[in-house]
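Troubleshooting log. The previous structure file for this entry was overwritten by mistake, so regenerating from the original sequence record. Sequence copied from the archived sheet and checked twice against the printout by T.R.
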Amino acid sequence: MLTLMENLGSKVIGGLSGMGRMVILLLAALVWAVIPPFRLRRLAQQIHFMGWRSLLVVALTGGFTGMVLGLQGYYTLNKFGATAMLGPAVALSLIREIGPVLCGLVVTGRAGSAMAAEIGIMRITDQIDALSVMALNPTKYLITPNILAGLITLPLLTAILDVIGIYGGYLVGVKLLGVGQGVYFGEMRNLLSMHDVMIGFYKSVSFGLIISWICCYKGFHTRFGAEGVSKATTEAVVLSSVWILICDYFLTSVL
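Regenerated output below.
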């Protein structure tokens, strides 16, 4: 019984200390973001890596998601004689909920895993220690650009996914199933508000922070060896995905 309590207490203390290290890393990265010199080239490289290189998979995800929403939404609304609401149904589903979540999950698998693996390999090959020897702050050089890139790229990618998804629903609903083009976009204009757009924006910014923060932390605190990098990368993707879904619920309930 005593051994069980010791193990439980050890896990609780380990979890709390890990959360503390994560918060300290985030605060340090945000503080270094406003202290010169500003490494704009490094930031541009990370924006290119997280944004441009993820664009194709985000576009494909958005297009086919919109097509599925258009197809399923049409047959559902047709039972109630409300096919004119197909446009707003697709747009609201994408902008408020599905767009930010899907974009966050896609970027986690595409860029977040690579980010964690890259920093993890730098850790096990002593490159992070070499940065300190060269008088370069590892947090400012590695973590801060990644977090800022996540905050910038996720809203942009989410907007692209939403637009492509809406036109994917247009192709299915209007061109395939015969919903009027004016009805599809007209009702969308009438029922969609700026508040809906801002909800999606707030979610995408939050998810960008979650992805870059967790993946950088897992890579930065990788244990030595190839197995440590593999474990850190897996934990980064799983933990980021879970927290995206958890935060999505709470943000939806609050907003």
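Residues 59-254 form one domain. Archived copy saved in two places this time.
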